[in-house]
């Protein structure tokens, strides 16, 4: 019978959870690294939720250099759907939509295939929450859990690039929503 142990580590910018599975006297480590990104917006949480709930149709319009195409290959774009992305550099990824909570403005999805994983990452799970802020706008918060293969680790540089990319894409999406208020 397998025995599971969890070890939690925290640094200044990231959290690490290492799950160690003992099965038939064999040690199999699985490293999880979490990262959070928060961005304040002048838009309401309702508008941001609607914007990101239509990410697969809007992102290629907003940033065609980064996103050549985003295609729903199974389902209707809702929970359980599989979505394929072709990026500007020709790399690809696929993810499943895990949850869409319209009343709490939450979206969750899991990338299970991506060229950028390069044998380091098994999958990443993204949890996005839009919360009202005191100034009438909203806070965009994204938590990403990277499930690394074996004892592979993500560099601080890779984590920082990911954070900056997420913030940059958010700002472009936000600008699109401001320029097209009739859509939101």
Automatic annotation (TrEMBL):
One Pfam short name: Bet_v_1
Residue ranges constituting the Bet v I/Major latex protein domain according to the UniProt record: 32-176
Domain of life: Eukaryota
GO biological process, one term: defense response
A single GO molecular function term of this UniProt record: abscisic acid binding
Family: Belongs to the BetVI family.
Protein name: Bet v I/Major latex protein
Organism annotation: Helianthus annuus
